[in-house]
Amino acid sequence: MSAATATLITCHANADFDAFAAMLAARHLYAPCVLLFPGSQERGLQKVYAGLDRAAYGFAEVADLHWEDFGRLVLVDTRQRSRVGHVVPLLERSGVRIEVWDHHPDSPDDMAADAVQLAQVGAVTSLLVQALRVRNTRLKPAEATLLGLGIYGDTGSFTYSSTTPEDFQAAAWLLSQGMDVNQINEMAAHELTSLHIQALNSLLESAHTYTINNTQVVLAEASMEHYLGDFAYLAHRLMEMEKFSVLFAIGIMGDRIQVVARSRSDAVNVGDICAELGGGGHAYAASASIRSMTIHEVRETILRRLYDQANPDKTAREYMSSPAVGIESASSIREADELMLHFGLKAVPVFRPGTRACVGLLDAQTASRASAHGLGSSPVEDYMQRRVHVLPPDASLKDLTAIIVDARQRLVPIVDGEKVVGVVTRTDLINVFADEPGSLLDRKSQNSKERNIGKLIQDRLPAEIRDLLHLAGQLGRKLGLPVYAVGGFVRDLLLDRPNQDIDLVVEGNGIALAKALAEELRGRVREHQKFLTSVVIFHDAKGAESRIDVATARLEYYEYPAALPTVELSSIKMDLFRRDFTINALAVRLDSTPFGQLVDFFGGQRDVKERVIRVLHTLSFVEDPTRCLRAVRFEQRYKFRIGAGAEKLIKNALSLKLMDRLSGPRLFSEYQHICDEADPPACFFRLDELGILRAISPHLALTPNRRDLLCRLREMLTWYRLLYFDEPAQAWLLYFLGLNLNLNYAETSAHFHRLGLPEVKKTEILGQREQMRAVRGKLETWQRQDDVGRTKVSVLCDLLRSISLECLLYIMASTDNPGLQKNLSRYITQWRREKADICGADLRRLGLAPGPLYGRILKAALEAKLDGEAPNAQSQLRLARKMLEGVPESGGKSCDRPMRKQSMLAP
């Protein structure tokens, strides 16, 4: 074939039977040609392709192609550029003729083509078969069967609503060409493994129904550790079993999410929704493979697009607040602050003086801070946000969401010409998607299988905690306030792990509930108005002080990556959405009837069961990089695994160097929590594996020696804690010493600052470290002498007396000398606690006036006791008398001299 006539035929990535069959049909229309099969995730098609004589059909591999040989590209079953990435070299070359055969509706991603054959048929193969029939093409029975397989596959054996008369006519013609229907049935048959059955059960159990324009739409989810082939067939089976009108089957597979959508209703266009997810298809059958979104974001996107389809004519004009309250740019910050305070606004548009033209935005937090810093008289234009997205009144909900959610702009000015006629705020959007009665995002849809865990509360919690939860629920009903127990308490209840730290969230006035609770418990309330939280402090049945945190449902958002959160009023769903992981975004409603209704918007219950850590949205680690450390901590504590998607997002956050933006105190808080876990070394190993330690500081990367030392330190801490001494060992300090093994003073000092360790202790701790390093050689020397009986215990005690407990444990863990380790153990448990059996009173009875000699004698007595030379009080008194021999008896007031009553020297 010459370059001028060579033709390449291909279809979309992740081919289905219809796309594959269309390629086979097209080769008769464009012979001579080369076929490029881009691969498939359907096992049945993989099996068919593997059994073909590929050379006879003209298939080639990408590696064998010479792109410059082709002057024409034929695409079947697609015209979306994003779905044909395997032929980018041809798409980027000028002069290549592109011809398309498709049956999908138009999309923004469609390429310009030189010729387009487009028809609304159930299978694109039917369109090509029609062309073959017009040309009187003769097919072999085997090929007619393969083409028929494509038509049967994309029409659901002629049961889908998208099936047309043309599909029946094409199949009839193929039958006349020798198509074997029985063979099609065998080739299309799907073998269901135990994993498929398990996934199908998960889809059935998780199915939630939403009503769109009187059409029931079902969302069902299944989670697998790895990719599962034939997931589309599971969706087909589910549709047939349950007779759903519209189904979105969502498979969470490793680091990707697979969506298969089917519709038998004209009211729901699943192709349009899957296109929003980066996939494709037509109105009745579509799919998408997603790697850049969390399961929650996928679900919300589907529901948002369903909402758009249900309200196609609703525009920004209907969502906006009008007239818009704003401030002119020449006005003062103080005036803007007072305006927002008066109307209870979080932000306002800024107008050009004398007009309603928007020139910026000013948020309440900026105005408040500027006023606090004495800048109240400054003009608004000095501190306003200048780059502002605006929309016209006919903008769609999708347009609004793109600015408020994706671009993270607090409000959108709605402009007619240049004039601002209204604003749509973040709260308006929340009301649409969360608080609006009957909203699609309300999880309490019909046939929702919400779980009641009242029995778990009864069986797994102590009576005092149960009574507190019931009391909170009763007060909530009395005050008309929905009350929830949230977060880690619920997670650990499901895991049957002890956790009596109760956090309550109230939809409404949380402080009112806190006051009522405090009155019933005869306690008091400590309020934090800024963060809409309060603490109820009371005494439990044993008289010990106890606390319950009570918060008003709120949404935290972040002004910039790694910033501390800003708080605003919201619903329980939005309150849970701000949390770090799905397993922590669970709530139990306490005022419900029956008591103990589990609230799970984000699949947390499923993730607890599957023991996986997942985030709620893709910006989670960007907004708060400390969540990278927290993910590892929870993973190791519960022996879960960080989901593939979450792990990918962690690595993305590290590549953006977001750990550099974290303050020392925030790092120290997470570091200290890690050190207080049951197995800190496991956390450190995982942090090192993910590259988090290196992101904090390159010198913190774990060497084999450090890994070994960290494990020994864990053993030392466990050993010491089992002694039940009153003096606690600070785990964070011990592990800090281990993490800085073989680093110099400057590097260790830099880590002290980077990890936010207490600055007031820096000199003391680093001094201790240097002192410990200096004494190591002396300890080894002492041990060698002790091994041959040429030294004393008192010498060891003198070397160690000024060494802190943490450094002692560190030395004990880091030495390979069993003799020294044994002696250090005796020093920690016994020798460092020894005292002389005589005291100052005994020395006074010996006639010695108080003074420095007291200390020297008592020290000598203790050393003699440690060395076995004076093991009891009597022998130590003899030592004291001996030390007093030769001390002058002359008068005077020297406190080093004995008193005159020599009779006191009598034993």
Automatic annotation (TrEMBL):
Cofactor or coenzyme needed: Mg(2+)
Organism of provenance: Desulfovibrio porci
Pfam families cross-referenced by the UniProt entry: CBS, DHHA1, PolyA_pol
Protein name: CBS domain-containing protein
Keywords for the protein's UniProt record, in alphabetical order: CBS domain, Magnesium, Metal-binding, Nucleotide-binding, Nucleotidyltransferase, RNA-binding, Transferase, tRNA processing, tRNA-binding
Keyword tRNA processing listed: yes
Location of the CBS domain: 384-440
GO MF terms, alphabetically ordered: metal ion binding; nucleotide binding; nucleotidyltransferase activity; tRNA binding
PROSITE patterns xrefs: CBS
GO terms classed as biological process: tRNA processing
